[in-house]
Amino acid sequence: MDTFRVMRQDDNGNRFLVAGGLDRAGAERLAAEFEARGHKQLYWVEGGAPGGSMVGAMENRIVVGGALVHRGRVLAARRSAPAEVAGRWEFPGGKAEPGETEEQALERELLEELGVRARAVERLPGAWLVRPGLELHIWGAELLSGDPRPLEDHDELRWLGPQELDDVDWLDHDRAVLPDVARLLDAAHTTP
Fold first, then answer.
1. 14: Cβ–Cβ under 8 A, 6 or more apart, which residues?
2. Chain centroid to CA 44: how far?
3. Which long-range contacts (CB under 8 A, 24 or more apart) does 101-109 make?
4. Of 5, 32, 149, 191, which residue is least crowded by CB atoms under 10 Å?
5. What gap in Å lies between CA 86 and CA 51, rounded to an integer?
6. CA 8/CA 39 separation, integer angstroms
7. Helix, coil or strand: residue 52
């Protein structure tokens, strides 16, 4: 029988074993339970081999970012935490919950973080390992209703036009997707 363990990482990058010797479903439930309680540390599940011998293979959990487009501009959000990324800009979003599609996760996260209703439109090319066990996918999204406000993890928001994309200090993985965001903005300008 394969065994799994739940790991966590604190804000300083220290890794800790939370629980081991679990079946896959139990490990995923435990990691999700800790995150649901509002713990800010990163939790993930590592897999094992038959007979309980642990190997270093990690299951990557998906985090989604949203390039939220409205009236030919895209929303950028300045991080307020954790300290190592505070002051840098990103496309807002968060972790997908077990059983949730990436589209559902993005729409939920934009509601929680910004107070807006949005629709995920298309996944942009690329995937980035943000931290061990956490893989970022960025999606193009459209604003359906509401005025974005920085409710969680951000202290400032800016709408950027195509010529302003380089005006902020993007996190590296968000900067990597800017050519695709520029394409979305160009399409928004040509759509009647």
1. none
2. 14
3. 102/62, 102/64, 102/137, 102/139, 103/139, 105/62, 105/64, 106/64, 106/65, 106/66, 106/139, 106/141, 107/141, 109/64, 109/66
4. 191
5. 43
6. 10
7. coil
Q: Are the C-beta atoms of 137 and 66 separated by less than 8 Å?
A: no
Neighbours of 160 (CB within 10 A): 18
Give the pLDDT band of residue 181 (cuts 50, 70, 90). Answer: very high
| Mean pLDDT for all residues in the chain | 83
pLDDT at 13: 60
E-assigned strands of 97-164? 117-123, 128-131, 134-145, 154-160
What is the pLDDT, as a whole number, of residue 57?
A: 39
- Residue 5 structure tokens: 């363990």
Segment 154-177 mean pLDDT: 94
- Half-sphere CA count of 38, side-chain side, radius 13 A: 1
Residue whose tokens read 């979003």? 93
Residues found in the chain: 192
Is it the case that residue 50 has pLDDT exceeding 50?
no
> pLDDT, tens digit, for every residue of 61-99?
899 999 999 999 999 999 998 888 899 999 999 999 888
